């Protein structure tokens, strides 16, 4: 499966590019991220904790930047292992397009696949959790690079209390849908937004 989203960042294209390649900024913006360390040319070792429905795990993974066209685009190839929780792997293409001196349009298209317990809880619940993580990442990223979260929020962002309540309700509904989904919960499932964590 595939996830495509566009966000407007309140900074210049060069500033956005620099931030996307700054491991300290990324570590601060990725929910649950414990560390991002260089691991070869254009590669990074990542450690993070994540919860997807009833599955909570600490993931250790690696991401590799390819097809780099600074300051406009790159592709991220990623994989992570969460022990008994399962694994995730995939890739994402990220592009930046200037919209003036103080605005940049960021677009990404990500594809991913999960296995193990993550694949058994149902694609709707996985996708909902991934979108929530993506929304939180862009909220934090916008604040880090421009000090203005309004330009980088998704429809689920805004008042944290409202966003949390909405996310909980969504996850409850998705859990109910998953329980009635039968075979949908079996086997490997594509996952749409791991890249949002990176």
Question: How would you describe this protein?
Answer:
With 198 residues, this protein is an alpha+beta fold. It has a single domain, classed as Alpha-D-Glucose-1,6-Bisphosphate, Chain A, domain 4 (2-Layer Sandwich). The chain has five helices and eight strands; from the N terminus they run E-H-H-E-E-E-E-E-E-H-H-H-E. The chain has helices at residues 13-20, 23-29, 117-120, 123-146, 160-179; strands at residues 2-9, 33-38, 43-52, 55-69, 73-81, 87-98, 104-115, 189-190. Strands 1, 2, 3, 4, 5, 6, 7 and 8 form an eight-stranded antiparallel β-sheet that branches. Helix 2 (23-29) packs across helix 4. It starts with a strand and ends in an 8-residue tail after the last strand. Residues 148-198 have low confidence and may be disordered. This is Carbon monoxide dehydrogenase subunit G. InterPro entries: CO_DH_gsu (IPR010419), START-like_dom_sf (IPR023393). Residues 144-190 are annotated as: Disordered. Pfam families: COXG.
């Amino acid at each position: 499966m595939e996830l495509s989203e566009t966000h407007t960042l309140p900074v210049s294209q060069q500033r956005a590019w620099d931030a996307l390649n700054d491991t300290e900024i990324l570590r601060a913006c990725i929910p649950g991220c414990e560390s991002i360390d260089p691991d070869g040319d254009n590669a990074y070792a990542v450690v993070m904790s994540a919860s997807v429905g009833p599955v909570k795990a600490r993931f250790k993974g690696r991401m590799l930047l390819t097809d780099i066209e600074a300051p406009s685009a790159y592709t991220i190839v990623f994989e992570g292992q969460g022990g008994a929780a399962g694994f995730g792997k995939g890739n994402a293409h990220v592009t930046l397009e200037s919209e003036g001196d103080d605005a940049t349009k960021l677009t990404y298209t990500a594809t991913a696949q999960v296995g193990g317990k993550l694949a058994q809880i149902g694609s709707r619940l996985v996708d909902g959790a991934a979108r929530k993580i993506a929304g939180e990442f862009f909220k934090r990223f916008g604040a880090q690079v421009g000090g203005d979260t309004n330009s980088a929020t998704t429809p689920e962002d805004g008042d944290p209390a409202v966003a949390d309540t909405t996310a909980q309700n969504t996850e409850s509904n998705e859990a109910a849908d998953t329980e009635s989904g039968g075979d949908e919960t079996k086997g490997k499932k594509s996952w749409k937004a791991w890249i949002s964590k990176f």
